[in-house]
Structure formats: structure tokens, C-alpha cells
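=== How it folds ===
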Amino acid sequence: MLAIRTLKTIGLMSGTSLDGVDAAWVETDGERVSRLGPALTLPYAPELRRDLRTLLDAAPGLDPADPWLADVVRRLTERHAEAVRRVRAEALKSLGEDTELLGFHGQTILHRPGEGRTWQVGDAALLAQLTGLSVAFDFRTADVAAGGQGAPLVPIAHAALAANLPKPLAVLNLGGVGNVTYIGADGTLIAFDTGPANGPLDDWARKSTGRGYDKDGNLARAGQADGEVLGRLMQHPYLAAPPPKSLDRLDFSQALKDAGADRLSPQDGAATLVAFAAVCVAAAGRHFPEPPLQWLVTGGGRRNPAIMKALAAVLSEPVRGVEVAGWNGDALEAQCFAVLAARVTRGLPLSYPSTTGVATPMRGGQVLGALL
């Protein structure tokens, strides 16, 4: 095991919204964050985003040896390498610091922990070759193999970042799927997926308007949530199930069809999906030992005024973007995977019984390359 020291790390995250790759430079020993550096989001080309979306649909029956899959993975990895190049150059310029380690999550295309399956695509060996850096990867497999949910993994990093914030605190990430980290005043850590978030809304906007997302929440704000459809969706057993629990991006696709969402107008459908995302978060709060002092919201959902308004309507506590805490909401998840990468190198746990349901604190991940 390496001697305890801080590592100059770039964390990489490609979320279920398929917008692009987030990259963030962090100096960390895996337990504390010493310094935050430059970050960026590098969008995917439309063709790559389309192919990744196809992968999500095809993943349950996809052959890992499919040549088309290999081509998509190569292009995905090359885009990650470009993000590393840019952030690394900026860190050298602005901080005078280079990079030693990458935290490479890859792209989740299938998450079925109940079946013992989680699949993140990305070529760690190619990324190491393209960048010349050590790469920590494969963060979820060990947890799922040990009976855990494999998600969410970022709570331990949220706790490190929130060390000086008043608690109890809820950190809500609204990507394609929503997930929450609850940090108690006594250090209690609880985390789980809340339910659908941007994923169904993005798909709805694409189908209804041809745009990849509901820009500024304009589509949803022009409509009315359908009470009947929303009522059916609120009966979904996932909302009442106790944590730990996690979701695949497409887990609610059939439920949305069964509830009659497909029959709604573009505007009312978007409004209903926004309302449902908020209701899922409110249901999540019922699993906390006590109410949080505030909800700090990260991920793309915090930029959607319709979603933020819906959250404020269903939650009793203040709802704010993470920027009020001095965090960068666009970079936060990538920063977390930088912290997790450092934990992998030290053999520290990534997941816990209260975050993924694994029986004991679980190490995970692999590292390619030798850190100097």
C-alpha cells in the first residue's frame, strides 16, 4: 500500500444524462480534500451521444465482443482522454501542478444489482496509454458482487467536502437518475437513488421537440402536471421501499407507459415528469432519521427552474444549488471520483452498509499503472 500522501488526481464522470464527460482536478488523500483545481465539461458529439443512448437500450442483450460496442467504447475513451489533456494543461498553467492519477468511472449502460450485474463501458488501458497516467477504474463491481447495490458511491466524498457545513444535510444529485446523500450531525451517512430525474424528461423533450433536453424548463413550465398520471406513478413500490436501493436509468420506462404518460401533450408530459421527480425526492426524505437543515442540489437538474420550483413546493426545508456552499455543481461528481480514485490506491472502503447495503465496508476498484 502506498504511504499516505495527497495525490494530484483528475476525476472523470460520464452520467446517465449522456451530456458529455466531466473532468475535475483535485488534490486529495482520499479522506480529505486539500485543493480543488480546474474543471470542465466536454460535450459529446451528437453521433457519440446517439450511440451511447442506443447502448443503454441494447445493453441487456448486448454481446461484450460486439465490434460496434468496441468502436463506441474507443470513441468514448478518446473523448475522456481529451478532457484529461485539457484539465491537465490548465492545472499546469494555473496551479503549476501536474497530474498523477485518473479516476475513470466510464459510462454505465446497465445497472441490475438484483441480478448481480453492473456494466460501465470504457477502456482503462487505452486511457492510460493515451494520457501516460495511472488510472483507477471499475469502482462498482466489487460492491455488487458482495451483494451491495453498487450505487451510490459518492457519499463518502460528499462527506469529505461537507466537513465544515452545518448538519444534518442532504446533498441531492439530479442527473438522469436522482440520488441523495444524507449526512447526520453525528456523522451518520445514508445514501440511495431517489427515482427518475432528468433522464425521462430529456427523453420526453427529444421525442416531443427534437431537442435533447427541456432548456430552462420552458416545456414543463408551459404545461400542467396530470394528477391522474402522477397519482399512478406515486404508487410505484420503489418510492416506499427502504434504502439502500438504486436504479437503472430506464427502470421506470414501463411504469411511465402504464401510467398513461405517452398520451399527454408535450407540455403536460414534461410538467408531469418534473412533478414526479420532485415527489420522488420528497418520498426519499421520509427515510432520513431527522429532517436536513437544507438540501444542496447538484447535477443538471439544478439548472432547470421548473425542477427547482417543484422541489421547493414539496420540501419543507430550503432547497439551494450547491454553489451556495462554494461548490461547483458541474464538477462535483467528477471531483468525487477523484477522491474515490485516491481511496482505491490506499485500499480504503468505497461503500458502506448504509450507502449500498453491502454487509461490511467494501473496498473496490483497480489501478493500472504505477504511481511514483
